[in-house]
Design brief:
The complex is a heterotrimer of chains A (about 150), B (about 900) and C (about 120). Chain A is about 40% helix and about 30% strand. In chain A, strands 1, 2, 3, 4, 5, 6, 7 and 8 form an eight-stranded antiparallel β-sheet that branches. In chain B, the strands form four sheets. In chain B, strands 2-1-3-8-5-6 form a six-stranded antiparallel β-sheet, with no helix packed on it. Chain C has about 120 residues and is of the alpha/beta class. Chain C has a five-stranded parallel β-sheet with strand order 2-1-3-4-5, sandwiched between helices. Chain C is globular. The chains are: A alpha+beta (about 150), B alpha+beta (about 900), C alpha/beta (about 120). Chains in contact: A-B, B-C. Chains A and B meet through helix 1, strand 1, strand 2 and strand 7 of A and strand 13, helix 16 and helix 19 of B.
Chain lengths: ~150, ~900, ~120
């Protein structure tokens, strides 16, 4: 994936925030994920990419982030696990949809998988061999990460 | 049927049998006719004859002494020529006293024409009507019963016969037996004679029916029809010649007419039959003959006189018959040699002729014998019948044989066909199997470049389309190839079909050597590479079809790519290896460690940046580390690292220059980091593989972590950089050593010295020409020395170059816009000199790899301060520049 | 069989001449540009012509057209660069009998000629 694509990617997420919430989000300095460290927060949505390049994109955020977002989208909604997972899912879906558009033919985008930190079993599957680029996001002081881990282009 | 076939096979025996049969019947006739009865009248009674009519002639006591005597049977024409009026006969009879119990009868034979017979004056019978010329009876056998009451036994009895004549030349009781006997016995005698005739009739009719059936079955064989007619006519004729016709009670005249009509048809029918049987053409002669026969027939049809008919028959019909017979002979003789049948019929006809001649002669009265014509005809008919039947049987047999043969052939053929079908099916299933399982896509193209209907399954798999039949290849491929390639393909295929180019040469022009197509495997979209190959089918220069194969060359291509990559990598590795080999592995190890540290630094920098606003600071910090990597790499001559680091630096610079820089822009840095990390891995790998060769590798030899290392690094750097700068420079180490117990970071020292030396070579030392011009030694000299005492550790880097270019510095500062000219004018030299340490400042015009960014000195300052030291510089314009770094002890 | 060699390089012209010695051919002449080539074809009517595709004053393809116009039965062998398969294709389409890609050696040249001679 060319870096410009990742940027468009990221921008589409931030646009989403801007549109849905009216409050703009911020991107921080991208960094390489340290192999041993996990950046996963309370909720994570993963979408797999296969085709020319294989890998995954994941979006991870903490409870506060998601509940605020939830509040914005459906005011008065309860902060249940399901609802928060839903929100995470919604974001992951957005990524997924944009991904297909951005990457075009030649790529297959999987259905997003949502899990919360408690589901530690899923975490293991996220050990991506390739280097993972992490883009920090901030919305209303709440932090989230968008991570892209892709194998090299063949 | 078997017996019959056997019989007809032996035709001669058939004929013999027929002859014997005929003679049997002939003799039977003779024998029967001479059958005697109880009453013995051994002598033929003589009769008295009188011309004219008088009813008194019938009386017993009429005086007939002046009557003429005549023996019977006889023709009264001998006595009364040309007279066909009435004639009376009187016969005196004596009967024995003892009369037989049964009724008596008298047989008078055949009388021409009509008669009234009286016994002792009483009419006992008559035949025909004397007064009626039509009601004739001239071929009827007379047999009358004599009532016993009329007989006077022992005395003279008189039989009086009144006869009315017909023919001028033949009249009276002229034929047959004249006798008295038991009525019933005489009757049976007559009947038995008739019997033979009826037998003939039956035979003829049977034959006729038989051959009519033949004809019906084989309509094309018209000879059967004519023969049937012939036989029918014969049969009817004999029926009419029998006494049985009188029993029907039909009109004598009509029957007689029919008799003559039939007679007139006989020979023509025979001739026609022969013509047809022997497949002779109807010539003019034949038509004339048939014409004559027709006339003949008409004459009988339209005339009504017995006399005329009889005369005509004898004198005209008979010659016509002979004419017909001659024609028949001709027909038969023309086939005589070739056909047995012809010969047989010929002989039969000869026999017939003989019989006819016999009868003719009898008619003329020359002699008396049996009437043979009827037998002649019978013989002929049977002979022909046999021939025809045998032919029929033979044909039947042939047909049967043919049928059996045909059946056999059909069975055999069906078997063959079945086998062929099985073979074809096998072949087809083989082909289908082939097409299904072959690993390439195979198809046929017609001259219009359309794909044929039968192609291998792999083709479907490759293109994910199973409706390829009839599709134009170029149109189909347009989805995967660009316009130009499509046109080239079209041209190529046309050339393939029409030109006489050699196969090898043609294949060189193949534009479809490699095409990329999207491919779906297990729901995943991948791209594959396929190769099309075409083989021509048909005659050179005029090929009818093209055989196309599609081969998946993705693996091949991947392999090639991998090979190229691995070759490149190997090359790189080789290069690196070469680059490393001459190096002390410990040096390399240190280098790697340093790079690792540097890159980790970079990562850390980015990792901790998060949402900071001071992006430039981040970038600068990253730059420093990257620059350091570059420096180290170039020292060791590791091109790969140097290049990567250089590119990294350029990237950072472009970001620094960017307007409205945002955090996300720094994403690009990550790629460079990854790149360097990969290079790091590569070298580490190589080093790992070299461990066997370098035993010392494992030990951390502290000795090497000292001045030697630095000296070596700097020396190499000097020679390389000076070469690049096209300068002649040497670096000398004077009293240079790093103290053992020093807690100084050797890598930092190294970094500093390297930077300073680099700077000296680039900025300090002039080009050889310049030096020459200014009277200096062409070779520039840099002296690095160190001094260690209680106060600390001191490093000096002195070059005999042009010193600090304050003016240039000042200009640069003005250019950069960092300070105004006026301001700068107030600055002391020292201050100006410090500008050197300002980042972004460089007096070098272009950015070459080794200097000129103005970053170098900044780094030096940074490193020095990091290590807790101080840097100062002094210079003599155009003479020297001296950097001094002090590291206080603590 | 008569052969005309057309190439703007003297070295190549001579090389081709030398490499064809083992074949039963009569080299009736050489030309260094398209125009001369056409002239020589008109006067000598060679059976085979080798023609470099990139030449001054009339490029190979045009010369090919001209040659085939005046002598349609001439077998023209196009000599083109390795990367220039497209031109070779176009030439064959235009009526060239065969082609050979530079750089080539004696064996390759003989092969092309033999292919053509087989059909004559």
């Amino acid at each position: 994936m060319k870096d410009f694509q990742i940027q468009i990617f990221v921008k589409s997420i931030t646009n989403y925030f801007d549109k849905i919430t009216g409050i703009s989000s911020e991107t921080g300095v991208p960094f390489l994920k340290e192999r041993e460290k996990s950046i996963l927060m309370e909720y994570t949505g993963v979408i797999g990419i296969s085709g020319k390049i294989k890998g995954a994109v994941y979006f991870t955020a903490d409870k506060k982030f998601l509940s605020e977002l939830l509040e914005h989208i459906t005011p008065g909604a309860e902060n249940t696990n399901e609802n928060l997972a839903d929100i995470a899912g919604e974001l992951a879906n957005t990524i997924s949809g944009n991904a297909q558009e951005i990457l075009g033919r030649g790529f297959h985008i999987s259905v997003p998988v949502i899990f919360s930190k408690s589901n530690s079993t899923e975490k293991s599957s996220l050990i991506i061999k390739a280097s993972t680029f992490v883009i920090p996001l901030r919305w209303k002081t709440h932090k989230a990460y968008l991570a892209v881990g892709l194998e090299k282009e063949v | 049927m078997k017996i019959y076939s056997y019989m007809v096979k032996n035709k001669l025996w058939m004929f013999a049998a027929v002859l014997i049969l005929q003679s049997f019947f002939l003799s039977a006739e003779i024998f029967i006719t001479s059958y005697t009865n109880n009453i013995d009248f051994s002598d033929t009674p003589s009769a008295l004859i009188m011309k004219g009519d008088n009813q008194d002639y019938k009386n017993i006591d009429f005086n007939d002494s002046d009557w003429n005597v005549i023996s019977l049977p006889s023709n009264w024409g001998n006595i009364y020529p040309d007279y066909n009026g009435i004639v009376w006969y009187r016969i005196h009879l004596n009967f024995p006293k003892q009369l037989p119990v049964n009724a008596l009868g008298i047989s008078l034979g055949v009388i021409t024409d009509t008669d009234e017979t009286y016994f002792n004056g009483v009419l006992i019978g008559s035949s025909g009507t004397i007064e009626d010329p039509r009601d004739a009876a001239y071929d009827k056998e007379r047999l009358y019963e004599i009532p016993t009451t009329l007989i006077i036994p022992g005395e003279d009895n008189v039989l009086a016969i009144k006869v009315k004549g017909l023919f001028p030349y033949l009249n009276g009781p002229y034929k047959g037996s004249f006798e008295i006997g038991e009525y019933s016995k005489l009757q049976s005698t007559l009947l038995s004679v008739d019997f033979t005739k009826l037998f003939f009739v039956v035979i003829y009719y049977l034959v006729a029916a038989y051959f009519l059936l033949f004809f019906v079955r084989r309509l094309e064989e018209k000879e059967n029809f004519f023969f049937a007619l012939f036989s029918l006519a014969m049969g009817t004729y004999f029926a009419l010649r029998s006494q049985g016709k009188y029993l029907i009670g039909a009109d004598f005249f009509t029957l007689k007419k029919i008799e003559y009509l039939i007679l007139s048809l006989l020979v023509p029918l025979l001739v026609e039959f022969l013509l047809r049987y022997f497949k002779k053409k109807h010539t003019m002669v034949h038509y004339i003959y048939f014409g004559i026969s027709l006339v003949n027939f008409s004459i009988f049809l339209f005339t009504n006189s017995f006399i005329f008919w009889d005369t005509y028959n004898q004198f005209i019909q008979l010659p016509i018959w002979i004419l017909g017979i001659i024609l028949s002979f001709i027909i038969l003789l023309s086939n005589f040699k070739q056909e047995k049948d012809a010969r047989l019929i010929f002989y039969s006809v000869v026999i017939l002729l003989v019989t006819m001649i016999n009868d003719i002669l009898q008619n003329t009265g020359i002699y008396q014998f049996i009437w043979l014509t009827s037998y002649g005809f019978l013989f002929l008919v049977i002979a022909i019948a046999v021939i025809l039947s045998s032919r029929f049987v033979r044909l039947n047999k042939e047909v049967e044989d043919l049928n059996i043969n045909l059946e056999n052939r059909v069975t055999k053929r069906t078997e063959e066909l079945n086998n062929t079908v099985i073979d074809l099916e096998l072949a087809k299933s083989e082909t289908d199997n082939l097409l299904k399982n072959v690993q390439e896509g195979i198809f046929i193209l017609d001259p219009n470049l359309n794909i044929g209907d039968h192609y291998s399954t792999m083709l479907t798999t490759i293109f994910g389309n199973n409706n390829l039949g009839g599709v134009n290849l170029v149109t189909f491929l347009s989805e995967f190839i660009d316009q130009k390639t499509a046109e080239q393909t079209k041209d190529f295929l046309e050339i393939a079909l029409t030109k006489k180019l050699a196969e090898k040469r043609l294949n060189m022009l193949n534009p479809l050597d490699e095409i990329k197509i999207p491919f779906t495997i297990d729901d995943k979209l991948v791209e594959k590479f396929v190769r099309f190959k075409f083989t021509r089918i048909g005659e050179k220069g005029n090929y009818s079809h093209l055989l196309g194969t599609v081969e998946d060359i993705t693996e091949e291509k991947l392999l090639k790519k991998k090979i190229i990559e691995s070759e490149k990598m190997a090359q790189n590795e080789m290069q690196m290896l070469m680059g490393i080999l001459h190096l002390n592995p410990n040096i390399v190890k240190i280098f790697l460690e340093e790079v690792e540290k540097d890159i980790a630094m970079v990562e850390k920098e980015l990792n901790s940046a998060r949402f900071t606003k001071d992006l430039h600071e981040v970038l600068n910090s990253v730059f420093r580390s990257v620059h350091s990597i570059k420096g180290n790499a170039s020292v060791l001559g590791l091109e790969m690292f140097t290049q990567k680091a250089h590119k990294f630096e350029e990237l950072i610079e472009s970001l620094l220059k960017k307007e409205n820089l945002i955090a996300l822009d720094l994403l690009d840095l990550l790629y460079s980091i990854v790149g360097i990390k990969e290079a790091l891995n590569q070298v580490t790998n190589i080093m790992g593989r070299l461990t066997g060769f370098h035993k010392e590798f494992g030990s951390k030899n502290k000795d090497l972590n000292n001045s030697d290392f630095i000296i070596k690094a700097v020396t190499e750097l000097t020679s390389r950089v000076s070469k690049r700068e096209s300068k002649s420079v040497e670096t000398i180490f004077e009293k240079f050593s790093i103290p053992e117990d020093s807690n100084l970071d050797i890598s930092i020292i190294k970094k500093i010295i390297i930077q300073l030396v680099k700077n000296a070579v680039t900025h300090g030392i002039e080009s050889p020409e310049e030096r020459d011009a200014s009277g200096k030694n062409r070779k520039g000299k840099i002296i690095v020395s160190s001094n260690s005492d209680e106060s600390g550790f001191k490093i000096t880097v002195l070059d005999d170059g042009k010193g600090l270019q304050l003016e240039a510095l000042r200009r640069k500062a003005i250019d950069q816009g960092s300070y105004s000219e006026a301001e700068l004018n107030t600055w002391s030299n020292q201050k100006l000199a410090r500008l050197l340490f300002t980042k972004g400042l460089s007096t070098q015009e272009e950015t070459t790899i080794d200097a000129g960014r103005g970053m170098g000195m900044d780094i030096v300052r940074h490193e020095v301060s990091k290590a807790g030291g101080k840097i100062s510089l002094s210079f003599i314009p155009n003479q020297q520049t001296k950097f001094t770094i002090n590291f206080p002890k603590n | 069989m008569k052969v005309l060699i057309v190439d703007d390089s003297l070295i190549i012209r001579n090389s081709i001449k030398n490499w064809l010695v083992d074949l039963d051919l009569e080299i009736i002449g050489t030309a260094s540009n398209g125009k001369d080539a056409v002239k020589m074809v008109a006067s000598e009517k060679p059976h085979i012509v080798t023609m470099d595709i990139t030449m001054p004053e009339m490029d190979g393809l045009t010369a090919l057209e001209e040659i085939l116009k005046i002598a349609p039965n001439t077998n023209v062998i196009i000599v083109s660069a390795l990367a220039d398969k497209d031109t070779a294709l176009a030439a064959i389409k235009k009526g060239a009998a065969s082609f050979i890609l530079k750089p080539f050696n004696k064996e390759e040249l003989e092969e092309v000629f033999q292919e053509i001679m087989e059909d004559l």
